[in-house]
Write a structure and sequence with these properties.
The complex is a heterodimer of chains A (751) and B (197).
Chain A (H helix, E strand, L loop, with lengths): L1 H17 L16 E6 L2 E6 L4 H7 L23 E4 L6 E2 L10 E3 L3 H16 L15 H9 L24 E3 L9 H10 L5 E3 L6 E3 L13 H5 L5 E3 L12 E6 L8 E7 L2 E7 L12 H5 L13 E4 L2 E4 L2 H15 L6 E5 L5 H13 L5 E3 L32 E5 L3 H4 L1 H13 L3 E5 L10 E4 L2 H8 L14 H7 L3 E6 H5 L3 H14 L1 H4 L7 E4 L5 H6 L15 E5 L14 E6 L4 H4 L3 E4 L9 E3 L5 E3 L13 H12 L8 H11 L14 H12 L25 H5 L1 H11 L20
Parallel strand pairs in A: 1-5, 15-16, 15-22, 17-18, 17-20, 18-19, 20-21, 22-23, 23-24
Antiparallel strand pairs in A: 1-2, 3-4, 3-5, 6-9, 7-8, 10-11, 11-12, 13-14, 13-24, 25-26
Chain B lengths: L19 H6 L8 H5 L17 H5 L18 H5 L10 E4 L16 E5 L8 E2 L6 E2 L8 E4 L2 H11 L3 E4 L29
Parallel strand pairs in B: 1-6
Antiparallel strand pairs in B: 1-2, 2-5, 3-4
The chains are: A alpha/beta (751), B alpha+beta (197).
Bound molecules: iron/sulfur cluster and FE2/S2 (inorganic) cluster (FES).
The site of FE2/S2 (inorganic) cluster has 12 residues of chain A, from loops.
Chain lengths: 751, 197
């Protein structure tokens, strides 16, 4: 896979060099050249040319300690912990900054190396406070571990002036700093520069006086800022919400899937007892590499508040706690007395509904004779304009892993920074490394790459794609229309809000026509440049499972409404006298309309399937048990179906997954992306390019961003205190920089 | 149906639940080892027509060469019949996976072995004890994880116990060759980044 990936890139690059284009072709991944062979600790190892020596050592199975080198960041070479001995070299060599040379003999385990490491440790520790017992990094600290292993066992530190003292910085509600502990590895700076796009975090001063900070008093305003906490090899940057909460060895680690956006980031849920203590990224190079965004990482405290823990039945204007039997029976009564028949029974699936419960709910509602299965979005009552027959019409076909190959990206009505922060970091990477160019039709946003704003409305899409020169509004440096024409691997990213909007069909028509006209560039065996960016974790699965209304059901007035995690609901779509059931984990918007609330499990509490925007299904895992009387969602639906008198025919999760297999095998083929054939993709595009004749022409109403506050997008993040603080600090920009050092007494500046 | 992924097929669809009287007879705590009943050297006679298999314990004991070939034949007695484990354990799917490297540290500790463990039990898995606020559990498996050298070993163990299992394959890290010199490459055109390091 790696081989193909880099080879593809280098070919694109060579092609581009052939044209006298002002291509910016630098990258941390060298074009793949010949392999070279060297010897590490007497073991021969073959690596591609241009590999850093530390990587070669690793490939040979030799462990090299390091602080500043990080696999996914640029090389800095300033900690010197990675010194190794190379034959015929007079001094030890910093293996991260040294390219591997053919035929060289490297030793990582000689007295010279040991002495060098011990020396480096001594220098680092000379100015490192002896904080370990009160430091949050304790137990998962590189400095701690490496000083145990490589450091000296006695001190020569007798400095009368004491240790270096550095003022703490206030980076906002997420990152807590304790800058005395900083060893100046600059990982955080490199991350902020290259990945997060925060170019204000940087270093000032030199040598012993070097400091990390924002230059001016300012918070670190980035949706990716939490990652610098992981990167920091010591306890200089730690997590504010998690401060002094737990030690790493107390935590039970569960690898699972995030559901707060449609990217499906892999996460590790660390829990203690019945509580989720923190959420960490799980490395998956096909999706989130090693990063997760701050909402994924810090919305977990929302799992503690506002939870529905027991079934609730409305009596008059208040909710009364009830037993499961009573609640289910009330629903049975409600269904009967509402007199709902056929399509008058309506189900609404929200953003965080898992696939199992979607399938169960669909089967249940269908058994009751209704096709009225709607989605919790604007125009969710109508069949989606993309249709659900062709998968490639509603998925991010390009694949998250491949977006970096695009040389020109046209964003339509989307703000990837908020809708899919992980994909946005890939865009920044390609912006910096392969010189990708970006264009936007839609609402301006605060971006981490430069783009050319070539339009705002659906009609601008038509105009731009039909080649009518739309002059860029000058945010980018070049004329994007020309770049778009010359692009070898163009990529169109259509936001989910566009597809859900009134002009969805018209916009998709224009796009699919353009794609079909330039088929050779857009749809090839290696490249698919037509992608829809979903923003809700459940959406792709809902389409896959066929959780969509029939054309006739749209016009019925429902008498019985089943809300499954539906918290974005427009109150006007719920008739006054309908009987409403809400199933979900939070007492958020949806629960307010309910006659009966059924407490479900949140994503950390159930082992369920999630399909991300690429169409990749992944299986989450239970980290903690659901609180109180709440239950796994599909089981609630199964139980209800029995009480209502038309039981759905599966009793356990394996049978249910077999049912999912029957509906669509992709739902249970975990961790892989099923690629449709080219013919099928084109067929889908043809369907999009010939919408029903009732479709209106594209209007000039500007596109609107669906997410205005990144930190509060769903029931969980809205209940989270940390997210509220982030929203205040970053969205509303109301944050008072506390002078951290004045908070307590003056910090000791003596030894 | 043969296209169904493995984890959708029950390990042993036909094992009846051991009756109470049957289990009462199994009072000894140490279960008969495969090596004891069969003798370590002689492999059990393969049923006619069955593919030969290699028992994991023989490989571990160095008596047979790897890789482990699990018993495919359901007529071979599964460990669950004699292990005395509660029948409820048969109803729980186990997870087999390889833990991913922690992002908090550079080293790759604890990522080499395969782990088999159980999902948290709904309802009885954990609760807060009202007396002290500590976590209580009625799940005897909540603290158990089994480590294996290979995926095959874990799978064959689960199969012999008659447990339904699901395997999550680890993701390979894709790290491009890295080069210090890239920091200083000249880029034509407008400067896209201002390094502050
Ligand atoms: S704060 Fe941490 S990550 Fe940043 S330079 Fe200091 S030690 Fe390195
Ligand atoms: S890891 Fe090589 S100098 Fe820091």
């Amino acid at each position: 896979m790696l081989r193909r990936f880099t080879a593809g890139r280098s070919i694109a690059r060579r092609l581009a060099q052939g044209q006298a284009q002002p291509a910016r072709l630098f990258s941390t991944s060298q074009p793949r050249k010949a392999d070279i062979t060297l010897t590490v600790d007497g073991k021969e190892v073959t690596v591609p040319q241009g590999t850093a020596l530390i990587q070669a050592c690793e490939a040979a199975g030799a462990a090299v300690p390091r602080f500043c080198y990080h696999d996914r960041l640029a090389i800095a070479g300033n900690c010197r912990m990675c010194l190794v001995e190379v034959e015929r070299s007079p001094k030890p060599v910093a293996s991260c900054a040294m390219p591997a040379m053919p035929g060289s003999k490297v030793f990582t385990n000689t007295p010279l190396v040991h002495k060098a490491r011990e020396g480096v440790m001594e220098f680092l520790l000379a100015n490192h406070p002896l904080d370990c017992p009160i430091c949050d990094q304790g137990g998962e600290c590189d400095l701690q571990d490496q000083s145990m292993r490589y450091g000296s066992d006695r001190t020569r530190f007798h400095e009368i002036t004491g240790k270096r003292a550095v003022e703490n910085k206030d980076l906002g509600p997420i990152v807590k700093t304790s800058m005395n502990r900083c060893i100046q590895c600059t990982r955080c700076v490199r991350f902020a520069n290259d990945v997060a796009g925060v170019e204000e975090l940087g270093t000032t001063g030199r040598g012993n006086d070097l400091q990390i900070g924002m230059y001016i008093e300012k918070t670190m305003d980035s949706e990716m800022s939490g990652n610098i906490i992981d990167l920091c090899p010591v306890g200089a940057l730690t997590s504010k919400p998690y401060a002094f909460q737990a030690r790493p060895w107390e935590l039970k680690k569960t690898e699972s899937i995030d559901v707060l956006d449609a990217v499906g980031s892999n996460i590790r849920v660390d829990s203690r007892g019945v509580q989720v203590m923190r959420i960490q990224p799980k490395i998956n190079d096909e999706i989130n590499e090693e990063w997760i965004n701050d909402k994924t990482r810090y919305a977990y405290d929302g799992l503690k508040y506002q939870r529905l823990t027991t079934p609730l039945v409305r009596e008059g204007d208040r909710f009364v706690p009830a037993s499961w039997e009573h609640a289910m029976d009330t629903i049975r009564h409600g269904l009967q007395s509402s007199g709902a028949k056929g399509d008058e029974i309506k189900a609404v699936a929200g953003h965080t509904a898992d696939t199992e419960s979607l399938v169960a709910l669909k089967d249940f509602i269908n058994r009751l004779g209704s096709e009225n299965l709607t989605l919790d979005q604007s125009l969710g009552d109508a069949p989606p304009v993309t249709g659900v027959d062709v998968r490639s019409n509603y998925l991010f076909n390009t694949g998250i892993e491949n977006v970096g190959e695009a040389d020109a990206v046209l964003l339509i009505g989307t703000n990837p920074r908020h809708e899919a922060a992980i994909i946005n970091t890939r865009f920044r990477k390609s912006y910096l490394q392969t010189g990708a160019e970006f264009g936007l039709i839609g609402e301006d946003f605060d971006s981490v790459f430069e783009y050319d704003h070539v339009g705002t409305s659906p009609s601008d899409v038509e105009a731009f794609l039909s080649g009518k020169a739309v002059k860029g509004k000058g945010k980018g440096e070049n004329d994007f229309a020309r770049i778009w024409k010359e692009a070898k691997k163009p990529l169109i990213v259509v936001g989910s809000a566009v597809v859900e909007g009134k002009d969805g069909a018209a916009v998709l028509k224009a796009i699919s026509k353009h794609v079909l006209a330039n088929e050779k560039k857009f749809v090839t065996p290696e490249w698919n440049g037509f992608s829809i960016l979903q923003r809700a974790a459940s959406r792709a699965a809902a389409y896959d499972a066929g959780f969509t209304p029939s054309p006739t059901s749209t016009n019925t007035t429902p008498k019985f409404v089943y809300l499954l995690n539906a918290d974005e609901i427009d109150p006007s779509t719920i008739p006054e006298n309908a009987f409403v059931v809400y199933q979900g984990h939070h007492g958020d918007l949806g629960a307010q309309f309910a006659d009966v609330c059924l407490p479900g499990a949140a994503y950390t509490e159930k082992s369920s399937t999630w399909v991300n925007t690429e169409g990749r299904s992944q299986l989450g895992r239970v980290a903690v048990v659901p609180p109180g009387a709440s239950r796994e969602d599909w089981k609630i639906i199964r139980a209800l179906s029995e009480i209502v008198g038309s039981p759905i025919p599966y009793d356990d999760i394996i049978q249910l997954r077999q049912r999912m297999w029957d509906i669509s095998p992709t739902l249970v083929r975990y961790d892989v992306i099923e690629k449709p054939s080219l013919e099928f993709i084109k067929l889908g595009l043809q369907l999009l390019s010939t919408p029903p004749s009732t479709t209106k022409a594209a209007s000039t109403t500007p596109f609107k961003k669906p997410i205005n506050d990144f930190y509060r997008t769903d029931a969980i993040s809205r209940a989270s205190v940390t997210m509220a603080a982030c929203s205040k600090a970053f969205t509303k920009k109301e944050y008072d920089i506390a002078s951290v050092d004045e908070a307590g007494s003056a910090q000791a500046s003596y030894a | 149906m043969s296209l169904l992924p493995r984890y959708l097929i029950r390990s042993r669809p036909s094992i009846p639940s051991p009756s109470l009287s049957f289990r009462n007879r199994m009072l000894h705590t140490s279960r008969p080892l495969q090596a004891e009943t069969r003798g370590p050297v002689d492999p059990p006679p393969a049923p006619a027509g069955a593919a030969p298999h290699t028992a994991i314990m023989d490989v571990v004991a160095g008596l047979a060469e790897g890789p482990v070939v699990p018993v495919e034949d359901a007529s071979v007695v599964a460990a669950e019949v004699v292990s005395g484990a509660p029948h409820e354990l048969q109803l729980r799917q186990v997870r087999i996976f390889k833990p991913t490297k922690s992002t908090m540290q550079s080293a790759k500790g604890k990522t080499k072995r395969w782990v088999l463990d159980w999902d948290v039990l709904q309802g009885a898995g954990r609760w807060e004890n009202p007396l002290m606020g500590w976590a209580s559990s009625a799940d005897y498996m909540q603290g158990t994880t089994l480590g294996f050298r290979s995926k095959e070993a874990a799978i064959s163990f689960a199969e012999r116990q008659g447990w339904d299992y699901i395997v999550s394959e680890p993701k390979v890290a894709k790290i491009p060759p890295k080069n210090y010199a890239n920091n200083y490459v000249h880029v034509p055109g407008k400067l896209r980044i201002h390094h502050t390091k």
